[in-house]
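Annex B. Sample input.
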Amino acid sequence: MAELSFTPSEDVTVLLNALLDIYERRRSHSCTCPASSLMETKEPYFYPDEGMRSIKVDLDDIELPNYFSQIDPNPREITNEQLQTLEQKGWLRLIWQPGESRHLLEGIVVHPDCAPHLFKLLERMHPNQKRAQLADLIFGENFRFRGDWRERAIRHILTQLKQGKSPAPFSLADRQFNEDLLMALAAVETTTVETPYRVFSVRLFNNSKRFEELKRALVRLARLGHSEWRELSSQDVLHELNLVPNPDYLYLSGPWHLVDDLGQMISLGEFFPSVGIPANQVARLQRVTVHASEVICVENPTSFHELNRGKPPSIATICLWGNPSPACRHLLGYLVENLPENIPLQVWSDLDYGGFNILAMLRKHVNSRFQPYMMDIETLEKHSLWASPLTQRDQRNLKRLSLNPALTDVKPVIMHLLQRNLKLEQEAISFFLRNKNTPSV
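Annex B, continued. Sample output.
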């Protein structure tokens, strides 16, 4: 910028930054990079903004510090002079108010191809430079993520950068955020037992609240890298990473016998109606047995407690708390190893996408012998008065779930839900389990 003999005034700086803000917003939605990768070029490559229209800013839409001052005309004169110099260089075009040529500006127009000159004038980093910096940062950490979902997520981000698309959840403006997100991404490999958010945050950043600012971004990366997690809630995704708001407990009822890694034996048959076991202790179990006539895994805590009010003591139950956590699946895995084939192993969930997805999860990640409990057409029809209509998202998810090979035996039930356009929550059934008087509908 040696050929320019001035430093942009305060008003000129505000105006040009407003133009470049618009430029960056438009560019993030419309531009693509050339075939060569940004990361292969040491110098920032200012590729043309094909198809992007000229950008205009009206002075009336911007809070200018001094331009319209009625007391001191000097800032306005300096601004006009500097902008006219830029116009002479062909970097922008000035629009004057009618009858006020060279006195009062109405607006400024910039062609996108001239934007790089303005970035240099303001010593503001061009989006290409930001992309290259982010790519360099990610490449520097990429070796940490070989061979798992994190590598797939990072590849997606690098592809986005290469194509000139949004690198979200990473930021083009906040390097510290990006560094901390990469640090969290690397650290989830070490969370082998359930870890509260604040504990994870202190260990990593010496700040108990920093992870709260990164949670959504980490969840988004997890969904990008792991297709099975895309339909899970944010909290369930973090649960898969052993990150929890607070220490969890698993609720068990019935004649369970547990042995942990220290050889401690825990017998739960004397606890009525149920007992909570810390998830971190569950994760250390090495043997699980039940002396029961059947085992029922219940999706929701309300239905779990309602079922346990009147069940025989010979039935063992466990509360899944929605999608079963890694600790829960750990317990059920050891249970299946020691459960005789003649003992029914059942899952009781809502009659909806979430409920059948839980059944599919357990069959895939624990054992294929899990069977549905009160998740049939008859149960739906008996309680249809308390059912709710499916949303469009419910319909899409159920149609997709009906193709899951792990759910072939319950496909008729899923198709019936779609035909009736209904879903049913457990709580509607729990009430009548206790009262034993289900009215006919």
